[in-house]
Amino acid sequence: MRIALIYAGTGDRRRDAASGLRMPPLGLPLLAALTPDGHDVVILDDSRRRIRFNERGMGILSMLSHGQNARATTFDLVGISALTPTAERAYQLAGEFRKRGTTVVLGGLHVTTLPDEAAPNADAIVVGEAEELWPQVVEDFARNRLRPRYEATRPASLVGLPTPRWELLPRGLYYPLRVIETTRGCPHGCEFCVVPRYFGTAFRHRPLDEIERELRSYFPKPHPFFERLRRWFPAQSSIPYFAAKRLLYIVDNNAIGDRHYARDLFDLLRDVDVRWIGHTPITIADEDDLLRRCADSGCLALNIGFESLDQEALDALGKPFNRVETFERSIEAIHRHGIGILGTFVVGLETDTPETFDRIVRFAEQTHLEAVFPLILAPLPGTNLFERYDQEGRLIERRWRDYDSGSVVYRPRRMGTRQLFDGQRQTFEQLFSLVSIGRRILRAPRVHPLFFLMLNWEFRAKVKHIKRAWTPPPDFPPLMSEER
After folding, report:
1. What's the confidence (pLDDT) of residue 55?
2. Domain 2-151 classified CATH 3.40.50.2300?
């Protein structure tokens, strides 16, 4: 049986080009590894290489993982993963496959959030984490007894997971690094975040011995040339690790959610000898031992959600542990340990005004944040924020593809919709201007300057897509102007 696992794009090449970094995705390679034996599986990424259908035949025209030329291909079963901004494209893809007689299963975060919406667009849907459901879906389909709905009754176990089938990813679309997940879940109730509803509010861990086996399969004992190369560079240089492709991305939402587990994980990463990037809250700077272990483990950079420079906004979001008054001191501590920071800010919050954008730029340059991403608030379905804005009548757009942090789908309180839309783009352009890159990366303290120059240069190239891919929203005035 031939099976295709597909990441849906947005349906807009410019938006897909503007979105994110070219990190290898983890979910579908893991599902491919969980697929029962005896089936031919391919992975397609519609966001990186758009799927084109052969109108004269029964298949699709696509660049598959092991081929260099487009060819017509048919599948027996297709599984499509959808986030909210890609849901409409996922439904479109599903419809095209079903027209050609292919059975389609839809899953992912958006399907879990709105299963009744997704169900008419597929032969079956998967609600919740798919690890324990997907093998049953495949077996049921093979026996001609596919059910219309598969729903997880408990969080998936992270014990005994197979090594993802990375060889199935289309070639040439992603960075040459490995991706791993060590924990899931989050107990914090941030108003704009859907993670607790999907992954649960309790932290779950993969066994460290299983993580070690996987990592050592990716990163065996270094070749003697690596050791010689490392001696040619300063002790903290990451250039040898890039040359040897000993690079890792940890996708956990919070790599230090369980401090005891994080310490052991950091010790393991140090022993495997890699350079890695992951996500933590700014509070990692409050624990010197944890931060030291993080640095010793080979951490290149931490992705930290600052969200706002206004404490009132942070408290309202459900992130009171982010303390604006300590941001600068915490950044200095992280930099002292040789770790860079990828900082994210959410713009369009209740306290934000047109002056917020300049404040973010000044803060980023004064504190030398290595990369900064100003994201428009996206009230995703399934979050408390969406429910509140819906009840308040503040949503101005219902197309899911616009719930992507690049569109304005609601009315801000203290600035107009166009002010928010234009301000976010101007801020992005400022932050990735040559002047700002120089101020943030090349002035002391310099942390892995070559790596972050390359990273900033990639995002600088995205500015043209960001400025063109989105249509400006209707020009509504600030909501507070009508509340007086």
Report:
1. 64
2. yes
